[in-house]
Amino acid sequence: MKIDTFYGIKKEQFQTFSDQGVRVVITSIKTYPIVVKQIKDEKKDGYQAYKIETSKDLAKKGKTLREIKFNNDPELKIGDEIKIIDVLSQGDTVKITGKSKGSGFAGAVKRWGFKGGSKTHGQSDRQRAPGSIGQGTDPGRVWKGKKMPGRMGQENITIKGLKVFKLDEANNEVWIQGLVPGKRGTEIKITKLT
């Protein structure tokens, strides 16, 4: 195996039918060829990796450099171009990583699923408040990591065990069976699981 990782852009989600007539959810990911720009080795850099360049279409701000680590002797050389069909085939199990959708600033009820306060005993305006956030004299501060209101979403999410439903070589698309994180246009990292 030359490399086990590829990058693409989330295109759309839809439904189709398998050969057995079962309805399945599909996420299509548009991919572009990647080019090997540098090979890092253990002696010089402390680890082995291909430094690759993704297409200008993949990164909207221009070309993007990424690294794909490997363990054995390098099978690729500088200037080699790799397409999605060189990495994946139909039926492969993959791991997908992407940034989740952003939901803006959210309160504790929406962000963490807090129940909220009761509407009795004079509390008519505290239904969605987080309640007490700390102790009094000792320690006299709010503990680090306390679940509070804040920005929700825009986090790296990894989903394992998804299947490659179809490879569309003509359009450089890969159809993944299942849902992947992010909105349309999100950069997706696809890693083949052994």
Gist of the model:
This protein has 194 residues and is mostly beta strands.
How does this structure look, described?
The chain has 194 residues and is mainly beta. It has a single domain (5-113, 146-192), classed as Elongation Factor Tu (Ef-tu), domain 3 (Beta Barrel). Helices cover 5% and strands 43% of the residues. It has two helices and twelve strands; from the N terminus they run βββαβββββαββββ. β1 and β2 (23-31) form a beta hairpin. The mean pLDDT is 89.
Give me the secondary-structure topology:
Layout: E1 5-17, E2 23-31, E3 34-40, H1 42-45, E4 49-54, E5 64-69, E6 81-82, E7 93-99, E8 102-106, H2 108-112, E9 150-153, E10 156-168, E11 173-177, E12 187-192
What is the element string, with H for helices and E for strands?
A: EEEHEEEEEHEEEE
What CATH calls the topology is Elongation Factor Tu (Ef-tu), domain 3
The total of helices stands at: 2
Name the strands of the widest sheet in spatial order: 1-2-11-10-7-12
The CATH superfamily label reads: Translation factors
CATH architecture: Beta Barrel
Low-confidence spans: none
Percent strand equals 35-45%
Number of strands: 12
Please outline the major beta sheet. Answer: 6 strands, antiparallel, barrel
Structural class category: mainly beta
- The CATH class, by name, is Mainly Beta
Average pLDDT for all residues: 89
The rounded Rg comes to: 23 Å
Q: Percent helix among the residues?
A: under 10%
The tally of domains stands at 1
Cα(first) to Cα(last) distance is 10 Å
Shape label? flat
